[in-house]
Structures are given as structure tokens and as C-alpha cells.
Amino acid sequence: MQTLNLDLGDRSYPIYIGQGLLQQPELLTEHIRGKTSVTVSNETVAPLYLGSLQPALKAYKHSAVILPDGEAHKNLETLNQIYTHLLEAKADRKTTLIALGGGVVGDMTGFAAASYQRGVNFIQVPTTLLAMVDSSVGGKTGVNHALGKNMIGAFHQPQAVIIDTDTLNTLADRELSAGLAEVIKYGLIRDPQFLTWLDANMDALLARDPDTLTYAIYRSCQHKAEVVAADERESGQRALLNLGHTFGHAIEAAMGYGQWLHGEAVATGMVIAAELSAQMGWLAADDVNYIRRLLARARLPVDPPSDMTGEDFMRYMSVDKKVLDGSLRLILMKAVGESIVTADFDADALKRVLRREL
Amino acid sequence: MQTLNLDLGDRSYPIYIGQGLLQQPELLTEHIRGKTSVTVSNETVAPLYLGSLQPALKAYKHSAVILPDGEAHKNLETLNQIYTHLLEAKADRKTTLIALGGGVVGDMTGFAAASYQRGVNFIQVPTTLLAMVDSSVGGKTGVNHALGKNMIGAFHQPQAVIIDTDTLNTLADRELSAGLAEVIKYGLIRDPQFLTWLDANMDALLARDPDTLTYAIYRSCQHKAEVVAADERESGQRALLNLGHTFGHAIEAAMGYGQWLHGEAVATGMVIAAELSAQMGWLAADDVNYIRRLLARARLPVDPPSDMTGEDFMRYMSVDKKVLDGSLRLILMKAVGESIVTADFDADALKRVLRREL
Hints:
- The structure is a homodimer.
- The first copy, chain A, is α/β, with parallel strands linked by helices.
- The first copy, chain A, is 45% helix and 20% strand.
- Chain A folds into two domains: 2-168, Rossmann fold, CATH 3.40.50; 173-354, Dehydroquinate synthase-like - alpha domain (Dehydroquinate synthase-like, alpha domain, Up-down Bundle).
- The radius of gyration of chain A is 20 Å and the shape is globular.
């Protein structure tokens, strides 16, 4: 097992990464404060892994909420199911929630923990690659609104993140690829050597070689932890972690949540960011092709939905959280492996890229 | 105008109290950071006072959300109306919300501000006595769940509280009395001299004498600011501010939100707390009668609903936020003007009091 620490003063917490961690009850129990614990999972993950947590939880008053699976259910209505369960279970302010599942379960459980009785503790137990390398670390929680993704939420840090890489054995291929999009993202933001490593090891990653996957997860979490520790509330460099997300969120919202997986939309969003960066003269055509090829090798989509117009993009992007006082900020690439946040881009170039007039 | 400061380090903020403050645009504009501002009000208050804010807000991209009036609407569904408006208005992370109304508007606007795009600024402009002396100060925000009051929420401090006492001129008598319950509460918790003053000035308060009301508001806000500054997150003495609330919340929930006003339920709850304190031997029968008489003089109910059983109370109280690890903590009175938080009370005495077997 490897352990990283996310350093946030008195809200610091460990990230455990390794095989068979669900079989180590003390990793969980060490971080449960009160006498009551409620696990939130979904109908896909619960039958596979909820039982593994039982030995750890038998000393607590414990129950589980099983949500429907998928991004389409990441909304206030499903969140209310969690609140109702907590109230029926008479969960108090010392209750610890456990998020067992992917990013949707983690984000909703985290926001339920942030807002139930004005805040209770929670532990992240991610079971998808995307949740392991990105959403379970850093304290961003929330739900979607019909008019925009993650528009309702809170910063609320977990007590611990427990990453059992064995759970990846049951992950669908499409979900594995979606997670790889966020892994590749760290390379594109701040680590060209990691990109080279990913390029060299893509076949092993897709074949789910345990050591290769563990290294990719460890390195990704290390990047995430460094960035979040430096800028928890996203007043600066944390925004870089949204590379591809402004475009990706527009795709997700326009297509209907759950049609495109988040990682798939981000992959295409990163290609769009690369294309605009090339229009700005920062990337060469070869750089864009390298990025497209790497994402495609990870079996990710690299072109926007054919029925989505440039105007569709602009409409959904206008409510993006990176709009400040009406001006859109984008994450673009100065070089392969070096991204920046900027409001200083050519608006006409953006329109050309979104209209696919390249 | 008088100004108090709630001292919370870099989250400190001023509380302005006086007549005609809605006609002083700079009090608002000083605390609006971005270019967009959204006022949340309700259908009773908006026709009376929304216009007064217009001169202050004309320099901003400004719009208003008008909610239905009443505690019955303090829920996730109404909250979602605020989110929808914010997204349609393309409100960004620098948007400032303005809560113009009573406690329901303030609590919901505050929680919308806490959770919209993971947190934006807001300003409290309370227009009821209860909101002025209690709910607008201290950063408790949230909505009700069908199974319990204020069960969903966040701590989120406003940028400023602007109390224009002129707005009390349009307040219904019943709402004025409900506010007086929370004013009397401060006396019962920590200020016996203030109780004596309230007793001596009750007629002037009910006659809405401006100077008398202003002093009552100032003194109440001073108590609230002191307690919150010492214990923002309610790990200790802030819980005292919930005197009468555990019983009161049970009444509100059992009768259906909005049937009993919050202040009315708290008044009766404080009588129940006094009765239990007498059962514990801490108060004399005369003390309980003094408290009943003072509240009754403020035209507040001092007996629980006749159709509410002791079992009804216990059921609703079992999910109260002051339950910790299954044991109920209550705020009781060691003397008139001195309250304590305790889990160390006689459970049989509690049952006798709730069953009205006195």
C-alpha cells in the first residue's frame, strides 16, 4: 500500500492506494468518529463491494442507501433520497458517510455530507478509475442542474480516500478509458514526462496491468494533491485541473447527462483546447495530432458530437463557473505539458474551432 | 445608525441598525464585489421594499427572484427556483445575492449563496423582527426537510447585515410577537437585566416605539454576535441560542410548517424548557410563572398544541441536530437568565412534561 497526504492544515487527510484495501477494516474505522455510519452506493457497485465493507462496519449502527447508477441521476432529487435515508436512520451530526462508487456517488455523497445538518464527515472509497484519480480527491462536491453541470455544491474535504485498485477489475472498458482521460490531463497540464510514460505504457494500462495502473493512479493523485494543497478554493492554479472541462461540460449538458461519460467529454474538450491553442500559435499542428492520437489510443472520442453546433457550445459555456463578471476564462496550452488559465484568447478563433471551421 | 461588528477574522462583517437604511445605497454597494447582483425576496415583501433597493442596484446587472411567502416553502423545491433563476441570469462566482425578507428568505438565500457554484457572496437585509435579531446574523443557512426543520444547510456568513427598522412598520402583529420570542430568549440565556428591561418596556415594544425597538434589536444582535464570534460552528456555547428550539421545532414539524410561526413555537418551547428545569429543581414555580407571563404579555402562545401528544414530541425530537450519538442534549435553565446545554436531565421528568402530567 502507498499513502499520500493531502496537506490542508487541520483538514489534511491521507490517500491510501493499493490492492485489497477493502479487506483492511482499520483503514475505514480509523476515520469514523461517531457511532453511526451510512454508506452511499449505487445499484451497480453495491452488489459487488458493499459486502466487503461489512466486517469494518459491524461495530457501528450502519445502513446503506443504494442510488440509481449514472450521471443522469446526479441531481437534487437523488440527493434528497440521501437526506431522507439519513433522517429515517436518525443520523446525527457525528455520523460518517461512506461514498462507495464512482464520481457521481462521490460528488453526491460529499455534498450530502457538506449539507446534512450543516456538515458531517465522509470517507471516499472510489471504485472507478476516474473517481480514483480525480473526483474523490480535493473536496469538490455537488450535483448538476438541468442548466449546467456541478452548478450546485460545496467544498467539503473527506476524512480519507481509500483506493482499492482491485475494484478496477469489474470496471467496464468504456469507464476505464474515461478515467484515462483525466490521467492524461495531468500530463497535459504540468508533466510532459508523464505523457511520455503514458504513451509508452498505454497498452499495459488498457490490459489493466496492476502495477502500471497503480503507478498511473499514484502519480495522478500526487499531482491532484499538490495542486489542491496550493489552492484549495480554486482562486488560481487549481483551475488548470479543468483543462477540457468547459468544453466537456457543454457536451455533457447538450447531449443529456450520461450520454457521454464525463471523461469522454473531457477528452474531446482537451482536443478542442489544443486546437484553440494551435490557433493562438502556441501549439504546432503536430502537437495537436500527438494529443489526439494519445487520447484515441486510450479509446476516447476526439471529435465533438456531429449534431452539436458552435452555438450549442457557446450557450452551454456561458454559464460555466469559469465565467467571471461575464468574461470567459479558458484553460489552454502554451506547450504540450504546460497549461495556463487565460481570458486573453481570440474570440473569433474560439468560434472557428467550435464551428469546426479549421 | 448604529454599527456592530461580528468578529470572525477574515470573515468578519458589520451589522448596521437604524431607520431609513434602505435609502442609503452605499451600505449595499460597499459590499457587492462583482458586476452582477440578484435579490431574493417574497411576494409579501417585494412589493413593499424591492423598489427601495433599485437606486443602489442600478449600476449592476440586477434581477430579482420572488418566492412564495412562508415557512411551508422553505424546501429544496423552492431553493431550486433560486438556482434556476441564477443560471438563467448567467450569475457567475462573483455574483452577490441579497436576501430581502424574513428568516425564510434569509435562510434560503444564504444556502443558495453557500452552494451556487460552490459559494458566492450574499448580504442580509432582514425585514422581520425575528430575522433582524436572530436568523440574519451568524451564518446559519438552510432549508427544511419533510422529516425535520433546517436539516439541510451550511454555515455561510454574509458580507453585511443591513437592518432598516422602518420596515417593521408593515410587519403583522403576529410576526412582531414571534420576533419578540427570540428577543426574550437572549434574556433567558444570558442577561437577566435585559429581561427586566423587556418586562418594563413590553407595552412600548408592542406599540412599536422606534427607539425602544431599536434598543431591543441592538442588544439582541450584540448577544448574538458575541456568542457566534466565540463559537461559530456550534461546538459549544452557540447551542444555547437554541433554547426552546428542540421543542419548538417538534411543534412546527408536527403541526405542518407555517401553521405555528417559528417564534411562536420557540416561545412555547422555552416554557417547556422552564417547566423541565423546574422539575430538575433548578427553577422555582414562580420563575416558570414569570417566564410564562412575560411571553404571554408579548402575545405569544405558552402551551403546546392541544392535539400534540408526548409521543409526537419524542418522535420529532429524535432527529434533532442536538442529538449526538443517540443521546439528546437539551438547553435548560439553571436560573432565570442563565441557561446551559446538558444531556444530564431526568428522562422521566421530560416525559411527564411533554405529556403535560405536571
